[in-house]
Write a structure and sequence with these properties.
Layout (H helix, E strand, L loop, with lengths): L3 E4 L6 H12 L4 E5 L14 E3 L5 H11 L3 E4 L5 H6 L1 H22 L2 E3 L2 E2 L10 E3 L10 H20 L3 E2 L1 E3 L1 E3 L12 H11 L3 E3 L7 E5 H13 L11 E2 L3 E3 L1 H9 L7 E3 L3 H8 L4 E2 L2 H7 L7 H17 L1
Helix pairs in contact: 2-4, 4-5, 6-8, 6-11
């Protein structure tokens, strides 16, 4: 049975990944590392926890030894738009936490999952059906840290056989956690406005396509990759994955199927638009499909229906 440590367990992905992993491997076998509030309701009662500052390697190593960890999910990150406003913090967390996790994984014999992102690509990357292996050269701190993460994770595998694995997540849409400073967060915020009957001010221009994914598919991707047969993995860091690609108008009209009176206006955020313009329209995820059987379950229509249903219930509480 796996013994798993999640670093960054209270974030957008971590808060839901922890519950999913505990349902698979058992509550006592998944340890949630935390750093600072806010904490989800019932966080400390739900299972084992440990305080971890990802920039302090000794805290990571102590947790791995104490709980006999064999697999680390490193989710510590400063998201794209926030990292542009606080570049030193984005760099320190994006690179520093990863190097700490890699050294601990090497020395204490752990597997390591660290997400990359569509932000690892740049304005010179092919926009449509972006290949698995292509020019990257991002122009944001967030993207630069992701490229470094991909390269150094492969380095640790090549030199020390550390079992490093990663996916390039697109924008992730969740009904559970609020947006946290990412460029694709508009695709979450718009649902909250629709359910509340409020006008949504979209920060991204019409016609700006970006890859997106519903959270259940994102969780499946991370877990499925870590369970994959290593002998079948040609690529490790990092796999293109996607589920859908849309622009704000497509999402708006999908939501209007449920809320005909819903209104959206455009109030462009120059920083977020600049970042979005540097990212691909749609990734080619054929390598993930071929090497470890990746396949999403949610498209735009199904995701919208589920988001509306869950947020309606949440809004009644």
């Amino acid at each position: 049975m796996k013994k798993i440590l999640i670093i960054g367990s209270t974030g957008q992905i971590g808060s839901e990944l922890s519950a999913r992993l505990r349902s698979i491997y058992g509550v006592e076998n998944v340890v949630c590392g935390y750093y600072a509030p806010p904490f989800p309701d019932g966080f400390f009662e739900a299972g084992p926890t440990v305080e971890i500052d990802a920039l302090r390697i000794e805290q990571i190593a102590d947790a791995v030894r104490k709980f006999q960890i064999d697999t680390i999910y490193n989710l510590a990150a400063i998201l794209s738009a926030t990292a542009e406003k606080k570049p030193q913090l984005g760099w320190d967390v994006g690179v520093g936490s990863l190097l700490n996790c890699l050294d601990v994984a090497r020395d204490l014999k752990c597997a390591l999952f660290t997400p990359s992102s569509i932000g690892a690509f740049g304005p010179n990357t092919p926009k449509d059906n972006t290949p698995q292996d292509t020019i990257q050269r991002p122009n944001t701190v967030y993207g630069i840290t992701k490229v470094i993460g991909e390269l150094v994770s492969d380095y640790y595998y090549d030199h020390w056989k550390v079992d490093t694995r990663s996916v390039r997540f697109p924008g992730i849409i969740s009904s559970m956690t609020l947006p946290g400073g990412g460029t694709t967060d508009y695709a979450v915020e718009i649902f909250y406005k629709a359910v509340k009957g409020e006008i949504f001010e979209c920060p991204i221009k019409a016609g700006t396509f970006m890859d997106m994914m519903y959270m259940p598919d994102a969780l499946n991707a991370a877990i499925q990759l870590m369970e994959a047969d290593p002998a079948k993995l040609i690529h490790r860091n990092s796999f293109n994955i996607t589920a859908m690609s849309f622009d704000p108008e497509m999402l708006y009209h999908a939501i209007k199927q449920h809320y005909p009176d819903f209104q959206m206006v455009y109030k462009i955020d120059p920083l977020k638009q600049h970042i979005a313009d540097s990212w691909p329209n749609k990734l080619d995820d054929s390598c993930a499909r071929e090497e470890w059987g990746w396949k999403p379950n949610y498209d735009l229509e199904r995701m919208t229906e589920d988001m509306v249903r869950k947020l309606k219930m949440k809004n009644k509480k």
